[in-house]
Fold these 3 entries.
Entry 1:
Amino acid sequence: MKKLKGQVVLITGGARGVGAETARRLVGKGAKVVLVDLDREPLAALEAELGAGNATSIVGNVTKLEDMEAAVAHGVSVFGGLDVVVANAGIASYGSVLAVDPATFRQVVDVNINGVFHTVRAALPALIERKGYVLVVSSLAAYAAAPGLVAYNASKAGAEHFANALRPEVAYLGVKVGSAHMSWIDTPLVQDAKRDLTAFQKMLDTLPGPLGGTTSVEACADAFATGIERRARRISVPKWVNAIRWLKPALTTKIGEMETVRRAPSIVPLMDQEVLAMGRSMSARTAALEDSEQPVTTGA
């Protein structure tokens, strides 16, 4: 097991949610963290909470390679190197293919896929030097798609396969690669969707067994910290998510999609109506930060 004491970990989407809680857990295990986000106030507050000797922060946009290169350079300058990168920043949109705002769709893909690429591209030279670890934060959505969240589903599947492609590229260089797959975590992203859309809550209510339940941010961060320490190939939160990975081939058959197809007529039109009524395809909080040129990174 790779112990974390003295390790330097860069986390995108580090100001809130899973990113922030994971930073707390890692510092508690003796690591130093480099926090990257565009949400300035909570970013600065978390840096102050964790302490100057344990954390440093920098405002950066994962959709810009130069910002991520600056973030890595900042972390190396402050702490002397980099051992782990957590590509955690992510956003979501609402609405079916027919209803989602195309510009919002592009933004989700830009953050959730290009943002992962920029983060890893910028960090790899430093990680190779220390034979480090990359954690790409994907989702259960990479295994099982939810109608009405098409941009999120597609981008998280892309993030997972990015990790799968990266793994053999860097294995001979001593760098390990993992992907994280979570069901519904009680992050700002999920909280906003529940507030905005009765269709979203209806979807959760109709999912079988544990699929519609939520997991606390704290429990997710515990799993992340343990997985980072072990340099895990995959992190599943909750653990049953790994079973869905094995079921993925069956879930994309006609029989596997039968239940989703049955529920879609009562959920998708309602979601699209609510999106039209709101006049936006993302949460109000994210939209406000978009307008201020500080798009939120939720790490969900």
Entry 2:
Amino acid sequence: MTGNLDKELQLHSRLTEVIGNIEPLDESAMLRAEHHLLNLTKPPGSLGKLEDIATQISGITGELYPDLSRKAIIVMAGDHGVCEEGVSAFPAEVTPQMVLNFLSGGAAVNVLARQAGADVRCVDIGVNADLSHPQLISRKLMHGTNNMAQGPAMTRETALEAVLVGIEVVDQLWQDGYRMFATGDMGIGNTTASSAVLSVLTGGSPEEAAGRGTGINDERLKHKMAVIRRAIETNQPDASDPIDVLSKVGGLEIAGLAGVIIGAAARRCPVVIDGFISSAAALIAASLCKDSVPYMIGSHLSNERAHGQLLQHIGLSPVIHLSMRLGEGTGAALCFHFIEAAQRIMSEMATFDSAGVSRG
């Protein structure tokens, strides 16, 4: 028991060290960006959210014209024991099948990533199958979580390890030259875990937090809400302790994505948040370190019912509204185009002086 406690303390110390490296955005760089935007040939603020993104990117990187051409969508994959309760329209076997689809380049996120000039990096953090592929980042901690409706999804130690996996994946990709990241997920049953995380951390009811996920009908949705309520009542997660929430009603891929977000912030890199599951991970990251939030860019508003509430609680404003609810990192991949547009405005648009245009 002492050995387990020592390891847990070591893991917590490592996480605390990384969080300690996250600094506020560079205010002087943001002021320079705002000044530059005011000098471009347009009315002040007329490009709306593109100008906000440009200023945020400068604050994150400390540069007016950062090179963010190397970008990676990190898809964390893990299974959920709560699928035993019949909360999804798809069987758990779909998780490993979709992982192989990501690795062969045939999933929606692969298509949209190619269009955006981004790379997809798939991490097996907890798939309930033994997978092997040259492109797979294998960091399996469990063969899926335990059934949270009957007890904790995982141990506290495993939850900490999962967060650190996300940080370590970002560190390796950063060493390889990547400077912008996005979150993606795969795991049948993960909207159930994400809804439970949302309910606990915001104090909302399971009925408000749960949505249709993979497209379940009214009867199964009602059942899903009851399962979430039972999981929370059974485990009594502590809302003031995000690691406790993760371990009791979370998921391995949710924990891993929280680590991706924290790791990107510690490296002063923007991280684009995908949909509902990624936003649940972002809520965990924000609860662990509020200074990580300014490094996040909310990509889109999902059709999952509680996603808007979740984004609002974090403090993110979505760029895109396309009624999507796929996950995988698809919304984040589309958002890359808007980020590139904001960067091109900064680097390519003429100023009033250079273009000989009179100011208003």
Entry 3:
Amino acid sequence: MNIDFKLPDTEIVRQAHDLVRSASGDMLYNHLMRCYFFAELFAQQENSNADRELIFLSTTMHDLGFTDLGRGPNRFEIEGAHAARRYLKEWGVEDDRSWKVWTNIAAHTWDINLFKEDEARISQLGILYDVIALPPEIKLDPETVAEIVRRYPRLDFKHGFYEMHREELESKQPYPHRFHMCTCIAHEQGLQLEIPNPKTWLNGAPFNE
């Protein structure tokens, strides 16, 4: 497996790239680009004809809620989805495409995208691979992965990404998150609930940082 580090050759992709580059620090920007190129590897591995422009927009704009372009009272993935759709509409992107990106971003902290169309599912795989490297049975070519990381270094990502979420939590109290109904029922009934330690979760990815 190999990868061409050229981006999809469309004006919207160029505008989105420039936007996230200007809005993001180096650590976050590199994360976004790794997510896209990991998604591209999954698309190649599946021989998928998925729309690469939609995958690029979904993966590189998914954390706008952590930037000044996506600040707001809602949790970061909702604010980021709002910001992404707003910019896409300003750039003339059709309403149905801008809503697809909105949905992919708004749902990316859950597992919903993994059960949707290829553009959503492959985007989600790219994001998950960079954060937790997915379950071990899902493989990508290690040399190509290493080249992506070399081009877009992680820059203490595990610590930095944790801190971004901690700051997000502290800035919005009470935090606007709703638990799944079954989780609430389990808590009500005193059933055992396993709440993972986020540092353990992040540190489980087979990257040094």
